């Protein structure tokens, strides 16, 4: 029996430490530890409309996601009705960033867990593009400056066929270009990226014209080609080839509880979504339950925060650090739905939505929830989302000319008192923002973020967080090469920057802590 500590886990967003106990080559205990306190000073006692701009600064990856969630939250609190054009432009700004995230997550963060990169040097083919890759990467390997690192030793699940590896590395390079172009798409409507400046309470500030929509559409067609013919094919090649044993064993599965808040409003931004809302418990896919936000709580029994005197629902909870808290081991709180830990993200969304082609692949290859299923879900979702975005371009063109419909409705000053909730789906999963308003100012503001759900510590009942549960049972045949651990972590696509945040109304101080 031995303890394996990975600190920091690299090739993710933010700062994460993972500790596991390994007994007879299998993980028997696990801790997910958010190590960096961020002390993001933010929105309390300010004009509620500031929330959109401040909460976007939580993260540089999913900034638009927070702008979107905070605007949905403010729409609710202000009673604002968003015009159709505003809803569609919000969808186009945020969905483009999902495409950015798909390329980033698979190629630049995860794929290297499944490739023996040294095989590039053995490429024998004549494809000029792949020969350039061989030359470029081969030089780095020969020089000992191992490229695309840090990484663990390749194991039996790593692809080592020189043709396949060289092709995959060429896709890695292509994916950099696709990331940049996806961001450009988003910026066409958002003004800029990563921190967009168009989505606001009541709608968007942007007035589109046909030229902008056409520019977006032509970049989108390029994305669809890449997602469908490169990304999805790579995931299928790996997932139904060398990784099939991992897929069928469900390595890195977990509770089989899944939550989606629903994302991308079709006609009503709060009710009818392209990616539906739903809850699945204990893997029962025949029973997708409706979401009730009142069942969301955030506990801190094992997190370095004080208990919230007014309760654990995000309308009332607070975020006050307490580094001396007994038994605490993470700066990530423990959100629960109806008291249960739930996995959020692409797999949760695809299991709630259950699109036939995806479910057919899962059935055909007997894939169980886990590492490989998450990658498959992310790739399939990216393709169907990108194709749906074409429909939104068409719908937006039909709205052009209704100029007044695009201007921000006259929403007036913030209400004297009120509250609102904004629930949506963002690349990593379910995102919720909650606000309470008093004297026209923000009295309380809480964000419950995808990575907080997935990477939470234990709760008061002693239930592991979803990642912790997913790690238990994972094979680690060599404690010096815990590659399966990072595969599980990265399949959940964490962003610890989002997961840990704090709203401090008084001091503006970035707190200092020493973690022993
Ligand atoms: Ni910082 Fe985020 C997404 C949000 S993560 S990336 O997607 O919200 O938990």
From TrEMBL:
Residues engaged in binding Mg(2+): 62, 447, 498, 501
Compartments where found: Cell envelope
Pfam families per the UniProt record, alphabetical: NiFeSe_Hases
Record InterPro entries: Ni-dep_hyd_lsu, NiFe-Hase_large, NiFe/NiFeSe_hydrgnase_LSU
Superkingdom per UniProt: Bacteria
Cofactor requirement: Ni(2+); Fe cation
GO molecular function: nickel cation binding; oxidoreductase activity
Residues that hold Ni(2+) according to the record: 59, 495
Subunit structure: Heterodimer of a large and a small subunit.
Family that this chain belongs to: Belongs to the [NiFe]/[NiFeSe] hydrogenase large subunit family.
Protein name: Putative Ni/Fe hydrogenase large subunit
């Amino acid at each position: 029996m031995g303890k394996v500590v990975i600190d920091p886990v690299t090739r993710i967003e933010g700062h994460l430490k993972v500790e596991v106990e390994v007994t007879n080559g299998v993980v028997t205990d696990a801790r997910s530890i958010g190590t960096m306190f961020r002390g993001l000073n933010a929105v309390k006692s300010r004009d509620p409309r500031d929330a959109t701009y401040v909460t976007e600064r939580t993260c540089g990856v999913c900034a638009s996601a927070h702008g979107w969630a905070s605007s949905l939250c403010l729409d609710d609190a202000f009673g604002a009705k968003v015009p159709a054009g505003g809803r569609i432009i919000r969808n186009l700004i945020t969905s483009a960033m999902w495409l950015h995230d798909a390329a980033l997550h698979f190629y630049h963060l995860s794929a290297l867990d499944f490739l023996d990169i040294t095989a590039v040097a053995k490429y024998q083919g004549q494809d000029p593009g792949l020969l350039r890759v061989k030359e470029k990467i081969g030089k780095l390997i020969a020089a000992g400056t191992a490229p695309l690192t840090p990484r663990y030793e390749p194991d039996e699940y790593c692809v080592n066929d020189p043709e396949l590896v060289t092709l995959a590395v060429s896709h890695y390079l292509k994916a950099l270009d696709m990331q940049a172009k996806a961001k450009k798409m988003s910026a066409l409507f958002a003004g800029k990226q990563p921190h967009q400046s168009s989505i606001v309470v009541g709608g968007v500030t942007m007035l589109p014209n046909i030229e902008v929509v056409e520019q977006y559409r032509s970049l989108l067609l390029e994305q669809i080609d890449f997602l469908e013919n490169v990304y999805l094919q790579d995931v299928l090649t790996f997932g139904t080839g060398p990784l099939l044993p991992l897929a069928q064993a469900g390595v890195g599965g977990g509770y089989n509880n899944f939550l989606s808040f629903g994302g991308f409003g079709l006609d009503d931004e709060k009710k009818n979504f392209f990616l539906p809302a739903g809850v699945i418990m204990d893997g029962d896919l025949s029973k997708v339950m409706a979401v009730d936000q009142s069942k969301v709580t955030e506990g801190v029994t094992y997190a370095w925060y004080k208990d919230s005197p007014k309760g654990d629902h995000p309308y009332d909870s607070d975020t006050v650090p307490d580094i001396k808290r007994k038994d605490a081991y993470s700066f990530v709180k423990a959100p629960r739905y109806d008291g249960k830990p739930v996995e959020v993200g692409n797999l949760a969304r695809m299991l709630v939505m259950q699109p036939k082609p995806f479910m057919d692949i899962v059935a055909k290859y007997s894939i169980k929830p886990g590492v490989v299923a998450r990658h498959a879900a992310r790739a399939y979702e990216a393709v169907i989302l990108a194709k749906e975005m074409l429909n939104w371009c068409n719908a937006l063109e039909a709205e052009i000319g209704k100029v007044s419909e695009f201007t921000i409705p006259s929403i007036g000053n913030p209400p004297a008192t009120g509250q609102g909730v904004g629930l949506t789906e963002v690349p990593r999963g379910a995102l919720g923002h909650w606000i309470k308003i008093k004297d026209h100012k923000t009295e309380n503001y809480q964000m419950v973020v995808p990575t907080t759900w997935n990477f939470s510590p234990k709760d008061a009942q002693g239930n592991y967080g979803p990642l912790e549960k997913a790690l238990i049972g994972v094979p680690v045949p060599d404690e010096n090469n815990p590659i399966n651990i990072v595969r599980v972590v990265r399949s959940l696509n964490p962003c610890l920057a989002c997961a840990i945040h704090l709203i401090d109304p008084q001091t503006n101080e970035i707190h200092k802590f020493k973690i022993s």
